[in-house]
Every structure is written in structure tokens, then in C-alpha cells.
User: Fold this.
Amino acid sequence: MRYKLSDHRCPRCEIRKPLCFCEFIPHLELQTRVTILMHTLEQVLTTNTAKLAHKSLANSEIRIHGRKDERLLPESLRDERRISLLLYPSTCATELTADFVAALTKPVTLIVPDANWRQTHKFVRREPALVGIQHVRIPAGQPTEYRLRVQRSEYGVCTLEAIARAVGILESPAAQAKLEVLLRVMVERTLWSRGKLKAEKCITAGIPPDAY
Assistant:
């Protein structure tokens, strides 16, 4: 990562040190490989949730796109031993379901764009390395719990939520639940630090006494 975090923030969870929630970052060993294609502008945002997904999933990686003169290689997103799927709700995307997963003959590499909607749409449409990779989408579900940025629609979810819901179908509901708890803790503590949430409303984990 090409940025320097403030000395007042935890180097792992990136929140102010008294509010550190590293203890809630799970360590998940999954068969599904998650490749996050992060826009370079997301790197510096402490509210970025894809970084938390990467820290939680042992079999994951982050690749940065949007840098000048750096391109993705098509072969870097494909492995003949695995099935590559792009998590993107295009008009041709297949919904992830238990039946769809049961029909897969190889383990999955789940490719997940991480950017705002405009950047993602442009990237998916223009990136040659993504041509020919099947699009999949998560089923419609509960409204997002990510309240730190304005969503473009009532159906929008953040990157960590999208990965969690996809993992819940590809792997297990237990893995999904751990990732969703992590998101709730991150959101609640960030809102509290902004003065937008009372400590007693932090139902997931509460606020550490030394944060006051």
C-alpha cells in the first residue's frame, strides 16, 4: 500500500487506537480464493471495507487498479485448476445459489471490484483482463449495514458485505456471520468516533472504556 497511516490509528484495523477492533477480525481458511481489484483511490480511505476482508481471509489478495501504466494480465486472473467468477451485477450475471455452487466442478476464484459504482462500471467495461470471465451476483437480501458512505441505491452493499454474502453461499453461513460481525463493529465504532452514535447503541461489541 502506497500511503502512510496516521500514528494515532491502529496499523491493522485503521481506526483510532483506543477504538481498535482487531480482536474481531477473524482468520478464515476457505477453499474459495478472493481476489480484490481495488481502485487506487480506495487505498487511503480508512472506511474501506475490502481491506478488512483481505485481513480476514487467508486465501485472498488485493490488486490495485487505476495506476498509470500498470495493467492487469489476463493470465493473472485465471487458473486452470479453478473457476474464475466476477462478482458484478451486470444484466448477464448469474445469481449465486446453492444449486449453482453444487454444479461447479472446481474451486472458485471470486474476483471482486472495489470502487464506487461509476469507477466499477467503467473498469469492468474497459478492462481486457476481465473479458470472458463469468459474472455472478449475490441474491437480493437485507439492506446494507454500512452507514459510513451514501449508497447509490437501497440495494447497494459495501465490498465486505458483498464478499460475506457470496462466501455464505460458496462456503458456509458461519464464515458469512463472522465477516458481518466484523463489519458491524467497524461501522458502530466509526460512527461513535464521529459523534453519530451513543455508546449504549453499540450492540455488537460496545466501546472500550479507554476510548472515552
Q: What stands out?
A: The mean pLDDT is 92. DSSP finds five helices and six strands in the chain. The first strand starts at residue 33 and ends at 39. Residues 116 and 210 are 34 Å apart (CA to CA).
